[in-house]
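Appendix B, example 12.
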Amino acid sequence: MGATVGAMLYGLAVGRVRSVIWHGAHYLDVSKLRANLEWTVVGQPMMAVSTRAITESLRRVPVVRHVVVRKQWPDTIHVFIVERKPFAVLQDATGVRLVDAEGVPFLWFQGDLNDPAWRPLIIYNGVGRPDVRFYPVRAVVEVLRRDHAWLLDQTLWLRWGPEMALELSQPRTRILLTDDCGPDVERCRRWYRRRLQELRAQWDEQVLPQVLRERKEIDLRFDGYIYLRPLRDGS
């Protein structure tokens, strides 16, 4: 009995990694990561492989939101990936990327910007990280998609930083929105939903097409008021 246990312990001590199995990867280009990781750990003693080191290296990959690395004795490493999920498309100074609901840009966009599923395109003109104070942008996009399809159909993009505005289709109409609704996403949703409902109430089914044909700036930043101004050429 003692000899058997000793042999098992010896096998565990000298056992080497033979394979790395990945789980949950969809957007992530596993081929390069697999090549690097397998080159590093395959053939190494299982006891010497640090799951913490592998985890920390994978957390630095933008697509990865969460990762768990586990050993399966005697010779296998399992990597469980939870990826960031696309919420919208964001354009900033670096290019056009998918962004998740936390405002983290994580993957270069390769799709069709004319696809209604990606409306509105978020154009970020700020100087900090795009994910800073993303909650009002997330709230606007969610409210448009869930409650205001009539406006989403007309929307070209959502400009963000230093101010926030919806730019509608030509002839251009700009809707100014505050981004100072607080850090609570649900509170932001309620505020934008109510303000856009108030705007919609002024435009019944008969006059809406005519209203949208006129070039104007609509200011919804101040609670209780809707300001309409002509939109000047070049503005």
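The two ends are 85 Å apart (CA to CA). Residues 3-10 have pLDDT under 50 and may be disordered.
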